[in-house]
Amino acid sequence: MTPNQITGARVAAGFAAVALFTLLGRIVAADLVAVGLTITAIALDGLDGYIARTRGLSSPLGAQLDILGDRIIENLFFTFFAVSGLISIWVPILFFVRGTLTDFVRGLAAQAGRTGFGRDGMLQSRWTRALAASRASRGSYAVLKCVSFCYLGLLLPLRQMPDVWPEANLRAWLFGSGHALVAAAAVFCILRALPVLWEGRRYVTGLRNPAPPVVLEAGR
Length: 220
Prior knowledge:
Elements: H1 3-21, H2 29-54, H3 60-83, H4 90-111, H5 126-133, H6 135-159, H7 168-208
Helix pairs in contact: 1-2, 1-3, 2-3, 2-6, 3-4, 3-6, 4-7, 5-6, 5-7, 6-7
């Protein structure tokens, strides 16, 4: 499979997972299958990049498709869990706005020939690459989102059970842990966006103040 096909596969796995999550209450086993598909969708995010690097298949289009796949997956899951009542509606709004801003800046950088996360990427300083583009940062962020999605998915059956089970304090702790995971993912997403917005300010400035046209004098 090509990296772009893998990107399409992980998006399909994400939609399949959410579809199975909605079957809870009728088919409880669907929850575990959905968790497996969620892990698959997140794991494939690293596989497409690995294949692109090792096989020399990296391209500006592939980099944009990879980012698009990330946006679809995170907005899909966070919106679903917000609609399900497990998290606040402001969570998917935050991720949507953050993604829109960073993708807008990346689009301007791409017009200047800066794409991807390598040497030709828009992140030039060490601290911005370490915070937003390093393997450790991207891997940690992916794992945090994966754990959040899986944990919230496992909480779905609990919402349909009577409030008397499990014991009230344990129930509150379980849901509080889910909120803590989502809050950590939200903070991490903001921290990873700051370097992109900081480095991208030069492209926004260039858009506001384009270079004046060159006027040739007569006879030249």
